[in-house]
Amino acid sequence: MYTDPIADYLTRVRNAISAGHRVVEIPASNLKKEMTKILFDQGFILSYQFNDNSVQGTVKIALKYDKDTKESVIRKIQRISTPGLRKYVSATEMPRVLNGLGVAIVSTSKGVMTNKKAREENVGGEVICYVY
Fold this sequence. Notes:
Structural class: alpha+beta
Number of strands: 8
Oligomer: single chain
Radius of gyration: 15 Å
């Protein structure tokens, strides 16, 4: 049993990228599903599939690579708020990742969304991770 499932999710994606895998399979949860949808909408992954055939279910993610250089589209994926040190921000203090080129995934009272959408909706929340 792992204590931080979000860090496990991010580490599995990071390890699959460094190993050059095309697909990574991760145990599912509602938060992980929402994070996967955001990664897809922002163009960081090719596709995803939710399999609910087992008790917990799984998330299958097809990773996206550059055709010419064979490098991953995801350069860095970093956990910000941890179970030991939560990182909460207000709508006015919402972080900008890589001067607007990256994305921060934020868990708000209106659901999981990007930092840009949270700023538009004028809600704050817990900063889960940075992706760029």
